[in-house]
Amino acid sequence: MLVIVVGCRTSDAPNSPTRALAPTAIVATGVPAAAPTVVVTATHTPATGEQKLPSQGAAHIETGAAHPAYNSKPATSGWHYQFWAEWGAYDQEVPDEVLVHNLEHAGIRIHYSCPDGCDDLVAKLKPFGDKYEKIIVSPYPGLDTKIALAAWTYLDKFNEFDEARIAAFIDKHMNSPEAPEPFVR
Fold first, then answer.
1. How far is Cα 120 from Cα 58, in angstroms, rounded to an integer?
2. pTM of the complete model beyond 0.85
3. Strand, coil or helix: 172
4. CATH assignment of 50-173, given 3.40.960, 3.40.30, 3.30.70, 1.10.730?
5. Distance set, CA 11 to CA 7, 98, 99, 121, 160 (Å)
6. Which residues contact 17 (CB under 8 A, 6 or more apart)?
7. CATH 3.40.30, the chain: domain bounds
8. Residue of 53, 52, 101 lying closest to 80 (CA atoms)
9. Which tens digits make up the pLDDT trace of 84-121?
């Protein structure tokens, strides 16, 4: 029987500096075992407007513990609490230290920042929290744009609502094997 490993991801053992590769999908075929095994890995190339950021790891910290600064706003990897937020839409800001854990599970963050209010924009963004299984929609005061999309080590920021751009980001990054724990809900 031929076994094909499709995509690989890294996974961190708690508090361990070592990383191990794990398959994202295994396909068994009826081909005899004497046939060679094929391993295919997946890596995303940033789309126009996206930034690929260096990973700051996936270390768990105690609630309220100090940690080095994140390399992006909003954070796309790094130090986070041992719990994560329920998927969906929020009316209040949720701390990076909580939401980075959601990204570790290959979820997507959709944030908006509108100092003068933007009810129309919020009304367009919130349905993404219902339409997809691993989405957080929430305000994020202090962004340098109105909208920010974050996935594990990826960030896209822009000012005008673009449903196709948001959907493409979600389709590309939700459950991505680049996140440390894409199989965790």
1. 35
2. no
3. helix
4. 3.40.30
5. 13, 19, 18, 36, 36
6. none
7. 50-173
8. 101
9. 999 999 999 999 999 999 999 999 999 999 999 999 99
